[in-house]
Amino acid sequence: MISIEQAQRAIFEQITPLETEQVPVSHGLNRITPESHVAPWDIPAADNSAMDGFAFCHESQPALKIVGFLPAGDVIDEPVPAGCAIRIMTGAPIPPGCDTVVPIEEVEVEGEFVRLKAPARAGSHVRLRGEDIARGDVVIPAGSVLRPQEIGMLCAMGKTTLAVYRKARVAILATGDELLEPGSPPSPGKLVNSNSYSLAAQVVEAGGEPVVLGIAADTLAATCEMISAGMDADMLVITGGVSVGDRDFVKAAIEQLGGEIQFWKVDMKPGKPLAFASLQGKPVFALPGNPVAAMVSFELFVRPSLLKAMGHRRILRPVVNALLQERAVNKGSRPHLVRGLVSWHGDRYLVSTTGNQSSGRLSSLTLGNGLMKLAPESTLEAGCEVEVVLLDRWFEQGEMEVSQ
Ligand SMILES: Nc1nc2c(c(=O)[nH]1)N[C@H]1C(S)=C(S)[C@@H](COP(=O)(O)OP(=O)(O)OC[C@H]3O[C@@H](n4cnc5c(N)ncnc54)[C@H](O)[C@@H]3O)O[C@H]1N2
Ligand code: MOO
């Protein structure tokens, strides 16, 4: 049985970035740019006023004759004579002959004249041409994630469309005669197919596009048929039917369709029966059916693959050191990915387990936000420091008491 790290390495080595596509800049959020973006011009394009006030030549203060008005959007081409000032609005280009701006609050206007309440510093409140970015600067390097600030910067640089790595389409197949779709009334021996939707949500959260294929009945023929239906996607994620049961047909179906199982079983709990295959050159992840095993193995193997395919360079979740709040024991022979609840206490992270760690118990994930790896046959005492993979960082958001 291979280790988690061996399985990750074997999978990630085979994942190559998808093609790129041209999208409107406004659709670029959270996508990766394959190329560097170089400033085609200086921003700002001209020296301009940072304040609503008066522009003048610094040598002319303190009393100045007001000779014009310059709102943002207009320009003054004629040099402003010494001893004169222009009433200028924020963003308007500094007129020739002027080098300094004083805000409106720092002057007194008397008829046609403006008097400074205190001497102004030369060049004050002037934003210089190119002080944000200069023409020729590499503003957004290749491989960057486009955040809202990069979207704004691309627009400021005159871009309307840009190339980004394509979103990965991930087909999701549930297997099992016991499954009902959400919304069906409970019936004996049946349970709701929750995995298709938790996995689809994980795909969306990673920036991919899920294609939910539905449920394959527990026959080889049905499993083959449903797998074939998913082969238009870039990757296939199957859940259930991958263990040693009499009705576990997933591996056989992949092979019958001409796929190659590259490995089966990873030394981990939950998620041991995971199989990784390639079929028609596409990665196929056959995840276990237990709801927690499916989600945890998605986290470890599918999410980083998806991110790599979409051009990301940082494909792993953040890891923090946290103080364990209670004793944690792994009596088993596999490394145990224990679900934990992490909190931040001013200067340190604390973590406690989410209770019963059965891999069928989805609440072990809903109650938590992290995963800690316990070595086989090991005990961690309360108060020791453990590494925790953060599955989300919502708990670090600030809170504010506001009335409803
Ligand atoms: N004799 C052995 N039995 C089992 C072993 C083993 O090594 N020897 N491994 C166990 C482990 S570990 C796991 S994990 C499960 C995985 O089995 P499968 O991948 O074949 O999954 P299923 O048997 O189809 O389902 C397991 C469990 O999960 C429920 N399930 C399945 N699909 C869904 C879904 N889409 N939504 C919600 N719940 C789902 C299913 O009803 C079962 O309860 O095998 C152990 N057995
Ligand atoms: O690997 Mo299984 O997920 O322990 O239940």
TrEMBL record:
Q: Which SUPFAM superfamilies does the protein's record reference? A: MoeA C-terminal domain-like (SSF63867), MoeA N-terminal region -like (SSF63882), Molybdenum cofactor biosynthesis proteins (SSF53218)
Q: Which GO terms describe its molecular function?
A: metal ion binding; molybdopterin molybdotransferase activity
User: What metabolic or biological pathway is this protein involved in?
Assistant: Cofactor biosynthesis; molybdopterin biosynthesis
What is this enzyme's catalytic activity, as reactions? Answer: adenylyl-molybdopterin + molybdate = Mo-molybdopterin + AMP + H(+)
Tell me which Pfam families the record gives: MoCF_biosynth, MoeA_C, MoeA_N
Query: Per its Swiss-Prot or TrEMBL entry, what cofactor is needed?
Result: Mg(2+)
| Catalytic EC class | transferase
According to the record, the signal peptide region is none
> MoaB/Mog domain: which residues?
171-308
Q: Which PANTHER family match?
A: GEPHYRIN, MOLYBDOPTERIN BIOSYNTHESIS PROTEIN
What is the purpose of this protein?
Catalyzes the insertion of molybdate into adenylated molybdopterin with the concomitant release of AMP.
Protein's name according to its UniProt entry? Molybdopterin molybdenumtransferase
Q: To which species is this protein native? A: Citrifermentans bremense
